[in-house]
Hints:
By secondary structure, this protein is α+β, with helices and mostly antiparallel strands. Among the domains are: 217-293; 317-411, no CATH class; 414-465, no CATH class; 481-529, no CATH class; 540-608, no CATH class; 611-672, Winged helix-like DNA-binding domain superfamily/Winged helix DNA-binding domain (Arc Repressor Mutant, subunit A, Orthogonal Bundle), CATH 1.10.10. Helices cover 37% and strands 14% of the residues. The chain has a three-stranded antiparallel β-sheet. Strands 4-5-6 form a three-stranded antiparallel β-sheet. Helix 7 (196-211) crosses helix 11 (270-281), helix 23 (543-554) runs parallel beside helix 24 (582-590) and helix 25 crosses helix 26 (640-652).
Amino acid sequence: MIMPVCMRPKEDELLYGWLSRLSLENGYTSLADFGKRFLTERTVLQPLEKISWYPRVDFIRDLDRTCEEYKEISFFPTADELLRKMTPLYAVFPFLTYGNQSWWTQFILREPGTALTGTGNRGNMIPEFLSCPECRKQDRKKYGFSYLRTWHHLPGVRVCAVHRVPLQTLAYRKQKVLDPDEDGIILSEKELVGNLETEWKISQFAKEMYERPLFFDLRGLQALLLERMEELGIRKKIKEEMETAEFLPYLNGECEKRVQKMLMEPRNGMDEIMAFSAFLFGEYSVLEEKAKRYIGELEEPFADVVRGRFQLLSGFGRLVHLKCETCGKEFWIHPYALGLGCGCPSCEAAMTLKQRINRRLSFFGDGNYELAQDVNEENMGERVDVIHKTCGSVRKTRLMETLWMQKKCDCETRVSFADAAERVRAASPNFTLIQYIGGKKDHIVRLKHKVCGQTFEWELGRFQKRPTCMVCERRRVPRGFVEDFLKRMRDLVGDEYELVSGFTDMRSRILVRHQACGTVTEMIPNDLLRGRRCNLCHKAIRRGELEAALESCTGGYYRITGMKNVRYCIEGENGEKFFRDPGCIMQELSRPTESPLFTHRIAKPKPAPRKEALIYLSAKEICRRKGFWSPRDSADILPLKQVQDLMRWLVKNDYLERIGYGKYVLSERKISGDRYDEN
């Protein structure tokens, strides 16, 4: 049943606060009674007392159906908008693995009992309700009432990021509406862990995570945290540095152990990792810049999974809106969940529980897993027998952990010397496997770096994600290495790029100028050697573009035959196979010297110019002629609205600078090569 009175939520309003306001406007003081009547799927003949609906403090269940039911109300948020603005979920996605992100979203989007998320409730992301006294004063003056803000309820937040005052804890009665203006609602001031200034830094960092959320996962964040510690040179003195910066009280226990856990474990305390991220990166914009390498890493695998099965009705994001080609029903889902075997909820409803579980298991590991016993809804959270048909072993495993966290059979985690050597070669041709040391989880290997001649030990999985030398790239480079790097750079890019900063080692950032546009891009040297180019002129490379480039540049001698993680498997007509990421593939096809990968090249790729670069070059020419540029000056290239959108991107990323209403000039920051403040 549609509620009689519906109000538009505030831009940053917490979901529970909005539902409380809707309940009061419709004459209900019990949120449970309001939800049973207006937010559940039921027939007119079903009495309310037979309906089960439990109001969580952070989300509501069966969200996809609820938002679909209210879609005729223009301002009622979609499932994606609601999770983005009215819950902490999207802000904390970098603290969760992709599997855990999928687990949470399926738990929220689907009706209880249909999503294979377990029988119990997941822990609340919001432990208590908080409010800022200054925000309430402003709200009452502006609206006549105050409301709860989502960003006050993010992990680790105890101080208002706007007013720098401690938040206040509100009284909460289970399943009842919450009115922040009610007499006696304020319980106490939120107790601070550190000093007010440090608390404010964490709150400000968290608020920016909410306003500009990043779509990557915990594994990527852990790699960035480790890289940042190395970049700052504080890994071996982390306790002293955190104590000096007054962040040490935010770690619950021995500093070194807590940091190691944050860098390695698939689950972490969100308050801790929020504070640690704020400490290491300082400004959120630093994390944004470094995370660019991971943004979009799911897009290509997602396109492969949905091809022929679903029609995409939205842009790619944390949730995607799909139409099932089989039944024609529409639904929202996390893109990674499709790779875990989740699909159309309407089609899955026609399957038995065992069929749904076995279908999910077929997407897991080598695809040869299935249940070895009958299960029902009651024992979904218990250990059950799962058989791995490849080796014949039967193991007792927690079903939810297996389905969502992808815990494979031991036989799939063992690595032979030949397998390890192939994985090292596929990651980078500059390294040789000397010894496979082993380890059930870590797979420690001893590698030799062909460039510097040194050997080192490292985890195979981490090396594959970031193939770098742990010897020469942690210290000053040996004699002659600068010249070697410059030669490798010339071999790859010719005179298209120029090094405009000094080069000290492989971990210190450099500035390179793209001669075509004249702008500089900051990066670490290895990124340049692996195919990263000008941020303005080069866009993310899609699979279709790579396939077209391989066809035109090699005459079809090489082709894409698969994908693993974010690397494509390239196979030549002679049977040779190797894995490379898109940037490296395009680099080897376009380099001015002979490519060791693509020995059969007949042409170089001609990528289409990026729209941002077209507008920038137009602005550059017009500024040269009349001293400034306005969007209307380039309306002959693209429609004015599109030019204005691109202009905002150019301003935000420091390519253009506003000097007056509708007037812009080129930013000296991207021309002169000045270092970024945050780095």
